[in-house]
Design a protein that fits this description.
single chain; alpha+beta; eight-stranded antiparallel β-sheet; five-stranded antiparallel β-sheet; 6 helices
Length: about 300
C-alpha cells in the first residue's frame, strides 16, 4: 500500500496560505468600498451642507434693484409719502383695499398710456383711456401675479404728470373700450411741508438677498410729537412706535432756531429706532411687494 499521510500534510500546507490571501483581499476590498462610500456621501451631502450655510447676501444700498424697490414703498402722490407702511404693523396683499391697490399700481403710469378716444364728457372735457392690460401690468408689477382688484368703482387719482395742464384724473371702467376712461379734472400742486418737524424720520439701512432669491429691505424709523408752549417754544417727544407709547427721548423748551442749528437726525437713534422690513419676492425676472412688518 502507498503511504498517503505525507501527501495529506503537503496538501493541507498548500491550502492554508490560500485562505490567508483570500482574507487579506476581502479586507482590502472592504476598505476600498468603505472609502468609496464615504467620499461619495461626503461629496453629495457635504455640498448641500455648505450651500445651507450660505443663505443671505448683503447688498449695496446703491444697487439698482434696491433703489427701485425702495421707491416703490416710499411712493406718495403730490410729493407726500403714503403712510400705510409707516403706521400698520404688518402688511400683506390682503391688507390693501381696492383704492390702495390702484394707488400703488398707478405710480408706474405714464402720459403715453392714456389714449385720446376723440370724445368729450358732458362738461366738454376730453376723455382718455388707459387699457385694462396696462393697468393689470402695473398691478402685477407692484403686487405680483396673484393680485386681484375691482373695476366697479371710480378712482380719483393725482398723477405725477400733467395732461392738458391737469394732473388729477378720474378713472371709470369702460368695457366697450377695454380699459378705464379717464377725464383729467383739476390741478393739484405738490404739497410743500412747512412743519417745524416731520411726523416721522426714516433711513434705509441695509438690504439682503435671501437664498430663495427674495430681497429684503430694512428701514429705520422714529416718530415725533410736537407740543407748542408759550413764548414761541415747544417740546418734542421722540417715539419708537406710531401710537406714541414707547418714548425714546424728550427735548424741552426748544425754539425754531434750536432745531435749525440742531435738526432731528435719525442716525442719533439708529440703535433704538424701530425697523420696517420690506420683503420682495421674485416672479420670473421681476421683484414684487410681498409683505412688510414693523419690529422693535
Amino acid at each position: 500500500m502507498d503511504f498517503k499521510i505525507g501527501d495529506d500534510i503537503e496538501e493541507n500546507t498548500q491550502k492554508k496560505p490560500n485562505k490567508k490571501l483570500s482574507l487579506v483581499i476581502i479586507i482590502i476590498l472592504s476598505i476600498i468600498m468603505g472609502l468609496t462610500v464615504f467620499l461619495v456621501s461626503n461629496t453629495i451631502f457635504g455640498e448641500k451642507k455648505r450651500e445651507d450655510i450660505i443663505t443671505d447676501t448683503k447688498m449695496d444700498l446703491e444697487d439698482e434693484n434696491v433703489k427701485i424697490l425702495y421707491q416703490y414703498v416710499k411712493y406718495g402722490t403730490r410729493n407726500t409719502r403714503n403712510d400705510k407702511f409707516i403706521k400698520e404693523q404688518n402688511v400683506k396683499l390682503e391688507d390693501f383695499n381696492n383704492y390702495e391697490k390702484f394707488y400703488y399700481a398707478l405710480q408706474f403710469a405714464e402720459p403715453e398710456d392714456f389714449a385720446n378716444i376723440g370724445k368729450v364728457n358732458e362738461n366738454g372735457q376730453k376723455i382718455y383711456n388707459i387699457s385694462s392690460a396696462k393697468v393689470k401690468q402695473y398691478m402685477q408689477r407692484f403686487f405680483g401675479p396673484e393680485v386681484t382688484y375691482s373695476t366697479n368703482s371710480k378712482i380719483t387719482y393725482p398723477f405725477n404728470f400733467k395732461i392738458n395742464n391737469l394732473n388729477v384724473g378720474v378713472l371709470t371702467y369702460a368695457i366697450e373700450n377695454e380699459g378705464f376712461n379717464t377725464v383729467f379734472v383739476s390741478l393739484e400742486d405738490d404739497i410743500i411741508s412747512n412743519n417745524i418737524i416731520e411726523p416721522y424720520y426714516t433711513k434705509l439701512t441695509n438690504a439682503t438677498k435671501k437664498s430663495d432669491g427674495s430681497l429684503e429691505l430694512n428701514e429705520k424709523i422714529i416718530y415725533t410729537e410736537l407740543i407748542n408752549k408759550e413764548n414761541n417754544t415747544f417740546d418734542i417727544n421722540i417715539y419708537k412706535d406710531y401710537q406714541h407709547t414707547i418714548l425714546l427721548e424728550s427735548k424741552l423748551n426748544l425754539t425754531e432756531l434750536d432745531l435749525k442749528n440742531n435738526p432731528i437726525n435719525i442716525e442719533d437713534y439708529q440703535e433704538k429706532a424701530a425697523t420696517i422690513s420690506y420683503l420682495f419676492k421674485l416672479s420670473s425676472t421681476n421683484y414684487y411687494f410681498d409683505s412688510s412688518k414693523i419690529s422693535n
